[in-house]
Amino acid sequence: MPFCLIAFFVLLPVLAAAGERFDLPSRPGVTQPIDATFIAGARASAILFPGGNGIYATGQKNFLRRIVPDLLKSGFSVVTIDVPSDQAAGMSWAFRAGPEHARDILSVIDFVKTRSPAPVWLIGTSRGSVSAANGAAAAGRRVGGVILTSSVWARGMAAVPMEKIVVPVLIVHNRDDGCPESPFAGADSGIKRLTGAPASQLVAVSGGLSRGDACQAMSPHGFLGIEKPVVDAMVQWISVH
Questions:
Q1: What does the DSSP assignment read for 155-215?
Q2: pLDDT for 5
């Protein structure tokens, strides 16, 4: 019985604030929705950028959505970005890499800082890495760092000025990623573009299950079945930097 009580009280700060929805004013006439779970004494606040079209309601299987419980257990507050009100049909490649999206992201960063003194980290996967890198390039040292996973090196990443990122960057990519938009070779080229980052590293993983399209979440592209080593690498990188 005592063990059960301890487990309950350890989890209580997370459960009490789980899944809050906020609509933040970001641009004239535009709001930026987020889903947020803030925990007391967080080690960091992780802002997540899922891939695909970015619509929160349809992205439950996305890699970053699947690992939210792991990030919370690791002591991170978690904020997941939804599409802004003027992109209800989904975010395009060009929008993710553009200045309007950067402004939306900055509004989220500013809001998160009002809720927690913990350093803010941007974490993207697949097309969401375009958003995370764009946000990091615009935010400067307002964020603690950025993590890019399964990045679409053959598509939108080329439009992001990665040389403007001035915080630590971790790139995680699966050698067995079969999506033509996110070739593993692109990760090595991408890390060379991080000329302004004080620290950068490429973590290569292998394996994973395949239960659908090679560019979707339920595949090696989405780290299906190998989530733990990826999360461990992310947590360690944030902890060190």
A1: TGGGGS-GGG--S-EEEEEETT---TTS-HHHHHHHHTT-TT-S-EEEEEE------S-TT
A2: 33
- Closest C-alpha among 49, 179, 38, 178 to residue 115: 38
Query: Within its chain, how far is the Cα of 116 from the centroid?
Result: 18
Using alpha carbons, select from 71, 58, 181, 199 the residue that is nearest to residue 130: 181
CA separation for the pair 81, 4 (Å, rounded): 34
Q: Give the whole-angstrom CA distance, residue 220 versus residue 227.
A: 10
User: For residue 212, what pLDDT is reported?
Assistant: 87
Q: What is the pLDDT of residues 196-230, one digit of tens each?
A: 999 999 999 999 999 989 999 999 999 999 999 99
How many other CB atoms are there within 10 angstroms of residue 180's CB atom?
Answer: 11
Alpha carbon distance 79, 230 (integer Å): 19
Looking at domain 19-240, its CATH class is alpha beta
> What torsion, rounded to 10 degrees, do the Cα atoms 83, 85, 90, 91 define?
-70
Segment 79-125, tens digit of pLDDT = 999 999 999 999 999 999 999 999 999 999 999 999 999 999 999 99
Alpha carbon 85 to its chain's center: 20
